[in-house]
């Protein structure tokens, strides 16, 4: 199905926003001003955006430690996100969450998660709630090729099938679980989706470096899961991450020239531009204009985050029940 | 007032709250019991009979029988709670927190704080705990000392059927995650329970079950009855004990403990978990810090030893605090100096 010009521009802007958000973080982290651990999503944007462009705020997602892309794609405010990562009181979670713990319930974003594999069972619960409510909404959990090896993911897949939860397991296979290769760590050598199939789910596969592949695949997946009674489904997208497992990762596990090669041949943003300009759907000028607007938005978000109010010691004691 | 068993107070309270609020859902292993068998749904109705009849009344959407997947049970409860439901999840045995601890500790307990107060997490996790059935090391443990140490959780340990009713209702209506610990040796105990459909007991309010001037005995759960027996025995000798049933370990009713110790000057804490970093050591430290001037003797914990729970009847009996051990502890603090 051909997307409208507006839809194409929006999808591109979302991918570019994630890209530039993270490219900027990658630079700013080097200065030491940003605290903690940061895991960048760069390279995988087509997956988050290709999935979330189908969703309403009533649909829920559960994300991972590599969650910035999912958050932005689901509609989290870019200024609030940047402020959170900078540890500001004005961040989406008041500086209490940080990069790995961003949530925005108004957007149906039920939380990034610092524990690999922890999100899948939570999404099953959200998917059961969608099923009970019977309005055709869904809950989606994003998992990598690392999380696919956690027992929680296995439990969640079986539980989703047994309870017919309106739940979708999106596996983003970026070929590295932390610093270990997919070929070594995933026993089902060919793929992850076959595991979901073995649990009794209908599965799909797509190219996670191609927005249109993700978007069209997800249309089919969602058409299926939104039908009450069909239960869960799973989809695997083959993708690439352009940075290390975490910022500061020396990435000695990469092959010679690997990063240059994947940036050259597997960049979803380059591929999108080539595809839409080649087909005459958007012009280079259209896309350049989005690029400029996004860069300005990131510059603005960064400036605001740096200037934003810092949390105080009193804030330690709020938003929790304290016994003594 | 109606007389009912502890287990019936559990199931009747859940049923009343499910009837009152359509967002309350129940999930857990065999909470329906018999799914996928020739016997059919409710062939069992939960191994503790704490969910009997719920499936028939409320249906499969709201009474969800799960596979043996404790992480997924607690995780699903978390996801339900974040999606506007009020899940009441059951872990068949409290010992099974071991296979689901991440979802309790890193997920449920932390959402509200970690996400800057943007959400609440109204989930109740019920679990059967405690010794007395010779169920040995992996099916007999008291786990409150682990869970009480986790910020973000409320931990409830009812002793009587009335307290089950009032505290479970409070738990289900509470907007934070609540761990509801049911002592398996108390399920068959009967007691008077108020009929009021809104009868609630607020968390953090201990109950004074015996009153006396000489010693304060703090406990909850199965061992509270042992403490009452000691108090009754000593009353015949003219020794008066305040017996305080904590009801909840988080929040903790500090005031009730401190007020009592200010009068008696002597404290015994009787705890079903091992001694290190325990409820007993915690409350003894609290009293030492906050009521030091009132103390006439060092505060004393009565715990099982620092061992796993043994199987054989003789061994389990020797392991648990007993009426005699509690009495000996009381006499020890009374005879200090």
Compact overview of the structure:
The complex is a heterodimer of chains A (324) and B (337). In chain A, 44% of the residues lie in helices and 10% in strands. Chain A has helices at 5-29, 45-52, 68-74, 78-85, 119-133, 151-163, 182-185, 193-198, 211-225, 258-265, 268-278, 284-307; strands at residues 60-62, 139-144, 167-173, 176-177, 180-181, 202-207, 233-238.
Describe the structure.
The complex is a heterodimer of chains A (324) and B (337). With 324 residues, chain A is α/β, with parallel strands linked by helices. Chain A has a single domain, classed as 3-Layer(aba) Sandwich (Rossmann fold), CATH 3.40.50.970. Chain A is 44% helix and 10% strand. Chain A has twelve helices and seven strands. In chain A, the strands form two sheets. Chain A has a five-stranded parallel sheet with strand order 1-2-3-7-6, sandwiched between helices. A two-stranded antiparallel ribbon of chain A has the order 4-5. In chain A, helix 9 links the parallel strand 6 (202-207) and strand 7. Chain A is globular. Chain A starts with a helix and ends in a 17-residue tail after the last helix. Chain B has two domains: 2-193, Thiamin diphosphate (ThDP)-binding fold, Pyr/PP domains (Rossmann fold); 207-334, Rossmann fold. In chain B, strands 3-2-4-5-7-6-12 form a seven-stranded mixed sheet, sandwiched between helices. A five-stranded mixed sheet of chain B has the order 9-11-10-13-14, with helices on both faces. In chain B, helix 1 packs parallel to helix 7 (161-173) and helix 8 crosses helix 12. Chain B contains twelve helices and 14 strands. Chain B is an alpha/beta fold and 337 residues long. In chain B, strand 6 (154-156), helix 7 and strand 7 form a beta-alpha-beta unit. The longest helix of chain B is centred in the N-terminal third of the chain and has 15 residues, at 6-20. Chains A and B meet through helix 5 and helix 6 of A and helix 3, helix 4 and helix 5 of B.
């Amino acid at each position: 199905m051909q997307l409208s010009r507006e839809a194409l521009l929006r999808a591109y802007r979302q991918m570019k926003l994630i890209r530039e958000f993270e490219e900027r973080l990658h630079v700013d982290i080097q200065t030491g001003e940003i605290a903690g651990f940061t895991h960048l999503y760069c390279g995988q944007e087509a997956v988050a955006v290709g999935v979330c462009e189908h969703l309403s705020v009533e649909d829920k997602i559960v994300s991972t430690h590599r969650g910035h892309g999912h958050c932005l794609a689901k509609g989290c405010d870019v200024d609030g996100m940047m402020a959170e990562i900078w540890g500001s009181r004005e961040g989406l979670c008041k500086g209490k969450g940080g990069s790995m713990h961003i949530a925005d319930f108004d957007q149906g974003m039920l939380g990034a998660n610092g524990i690999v594999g922890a999100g899948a069972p939570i999404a099953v619960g959200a998917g059961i709630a969608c099923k009970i409510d019977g309005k055709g909404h869904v809950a989606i959990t994003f998992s990598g090729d690392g999380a696919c090896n956690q027992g929680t993911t296995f439990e969640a897949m079986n539980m989703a099938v047994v309870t017919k939860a309106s739940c979708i397991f999106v596996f983003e296979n970026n070929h590295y679980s932390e610093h270990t290769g997919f070929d070594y760590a995933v026993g089902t050598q060919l793929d992850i989706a076959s595991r979901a199939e073995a649990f009794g789910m209908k599965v799909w596969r797509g190219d996670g470096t191609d927005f249109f592949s993700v978007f069209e695949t997800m249309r089919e997946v969602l058409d299926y899961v939104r039908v009450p009674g069909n239960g869960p489904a799973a989809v695997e997208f083959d993708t690439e991450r352009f940075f290390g497992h975490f910022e500061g990762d020396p990435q000695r596990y990469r092959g010679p020239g690997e990063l240059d090669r994947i940036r050259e041949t597997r960049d979803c943003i380059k591929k999108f531009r080539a595809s839409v300009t080649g087909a005459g759907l958007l012009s280079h000028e259209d896309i350049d204009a989005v690029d400029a607007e996004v860069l300005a938005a990131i510059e603005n978000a960064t400036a605001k985050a740096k200037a934003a109010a810092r949390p105080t010691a009193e804030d330690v004691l709020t938003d929790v029940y304290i016994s003594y | 007032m109606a007389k009912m068993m502890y287990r019936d107070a559990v199931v009747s309270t859940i049923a009343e709250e499910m009837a009152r609020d359509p967002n309350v859902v129940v999930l857990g292993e065999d909470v329906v019991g018999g799914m996928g068998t020739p016997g059919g749904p409710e062939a069992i109705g939960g191994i503790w009979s704490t969910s009997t009849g719920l499936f028939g009344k409320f249906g499969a959407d709201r009474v969800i029988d799960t596979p043996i997947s404790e992480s997924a049970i607690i995780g699903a409860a978390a996801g339900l709670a974040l999606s506007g439901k009020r899940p009441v999840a059951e872990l068949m045995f409290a010992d099974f927190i071991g296979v689901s601890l991440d979802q309790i500790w890193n997920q449920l307990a932390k959402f509200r704080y970690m996400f800057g107060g943007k959400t609440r997490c109204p989930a109740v996790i019920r679990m059967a705990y405690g010794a007395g059935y010779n169920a040995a090391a992996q099916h007999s443990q008291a786990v409150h000392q682990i869970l009480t140490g986790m910020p973000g959780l409320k931990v409830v340990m009812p002793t009587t059927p009335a307290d089950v009713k009032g505290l479970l209702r409070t738990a289900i209506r509470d907007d934070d995650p609540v761990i509801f610990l049911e002592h398996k040796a108390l399920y068959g105990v009967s007691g008077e329970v108020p009929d009021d459909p809104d009868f609630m007991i607020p968390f953090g309010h201990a109950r004074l079950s015996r009153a006396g001037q000489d010693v304060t005995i703090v406990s909850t759960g199965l061992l509270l009855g042992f403490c009452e027996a000691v108090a009754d025995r000593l009353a015949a000798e003219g020794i008066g004990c305040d017996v305080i049933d904590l009801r909840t370990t988080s929040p903790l009713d500090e005031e009730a403990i401190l007020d009592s110790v200010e009068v008696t000057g002597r404290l015994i804490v009787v705890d079903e978990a091992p001694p290190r970093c325990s409820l007993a050591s915690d409350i003894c430290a609290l009293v030492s810090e906050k009521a030091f001037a009132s103390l006439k003797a060092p505060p004393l914990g009565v715990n099982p030893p620092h061992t796993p729970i043994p199987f054989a009847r003789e061994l389990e009996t020797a392991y648990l605090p007993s009426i005699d051990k509690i009495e000996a502890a009381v006499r020890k603090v009374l005879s200090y100096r």
